[in-house]
Amino acid sequence: MKVLAINGISEKGVQIFKKAGFEVLNKKVASEQLPDFINQNQVVAIITGSNTVIGKDFIDACPGLKIIGRGGSGFSNIDLKYAQNKDVTVVNTPFASVTAVAELVFAHLFSGIRFLHDANRNMPLEGDMRFKDLRKSYAGGRELRGKTLGIIGFGKIGQEVAKVALGLGMKVIASDETVREENIQLEFFGHQNISIPVKTEPLHQVIRQSDFITLHISAQKQKEPLIGEVEINAMKDGAGIINTSRGGIIDEDALLEALEKGKLAFAGLDAFKNEPSPGIKLLMNEKVSLSPRTGGITIETRERINVELAEKITAILQDEI
């Protein structure tokens, strides 16, 4: 049986398939040519990312397809219900990028509190002529230790963010759809462990009490942004906000206004409302640290995704043999 990996696959992933007796086709195929390629090559499983749309027509056109493997979390590009009705199994890797996303949160936090995003723009242009002036303008940085981090969305990623924050000596408060207490396990060298309980609180309290806020919620059911003008006005003066979750969660117009008026000190954005064409005002704002949806993309994440999908798909196919 053949497995098609249209976005590439690591050698570890390939070896898992080969050891189980499956052939891997590591080939980039245009979306409009995919159904024909799958049928002609008798492909039973496909590994894809978020860019390939797999809807009803696609599934109907590939009657021999048994499994769709989606790297990362979510199924936004796949008609999950229809696939299940057609007995096509859909699997993903929801936890493979947890560490990568959590670490990017702090990359943006450190960038924001120490003006690194802006300094990296200006130093190449003026560092040789205005070194002392730039040093003075960036001298008002802050430290994270002792500050309160509000985590909105306390799933696996939110909990991983809490681990890093607690390790840095920050105070952590969290909000989630369900009220619960999670024991955050901190692991240190020599197999030393500390367990710190964090109980979720109402959203308005997290917004009001936090020095910095980071968002980690799944796709929204409501159409309105979770963080709008009202919520921003309720935040502490000089607070910062990070979004590595979903575009549209923050009202970007309200965010820009708050940054321009000094209500908020900075923002760190890895997700935007109008992807892949974010608003130019956001991109040019000197108080915004930016990244192009790279939260879950690292060398280690890609390896975990490949291995996890290979293990899941081979287990399912072997059960069917």
UniProtKB/TrEMBL annotation:
Span of domain D-isomer specific 2-hydroxyacid dehydrogenase catalytic: 3-319
D-isomer specific 2-hydroxyacid dehydrogenase NAD-binding domain residues: 107-293
This protein's UniProt keywords: NAD, Oxidoreductase
SUPFAM superfamilies: Formate/glycerate dehydrogenase catalytic domain-like, NAD(P)-binding Rossmann-fold domains
InterPro entries: D-iso_2-hydroxyacid_DH_PdxB (IPR050418), D-isomer_2_OHA_DH_cat_dom (IPR006139), D-isomer_DH_NAD-bd (IPR006140), NAD(P)-bd_dom_sf (IPR036291)
Pfam families, per the entry: 2-Hacid_dh, 2-Hacid_dh_C
Coiled-coil region list: none
PANTHER family: D-ISOMER SPECIFIC 2-HYDROXYACID DEHYDROGENASE CATALYTIC DOMAIN-CONTAINING PROTEIN-RELATED (PTHR43761:SF1), D-ISOMER SPECIFIC 2-HYDROXYACID DEHYDROGENASE FAMILY PROTEIN (AFU_ORTHOLOGUE AFUA_1G13630) (PTHR43761)
Similarity remark: Belongs to the D-isomer specific 2-hydroxyacid dehydrogenase family.
Full protein name: NAD(P)-dependent oxidoreductase
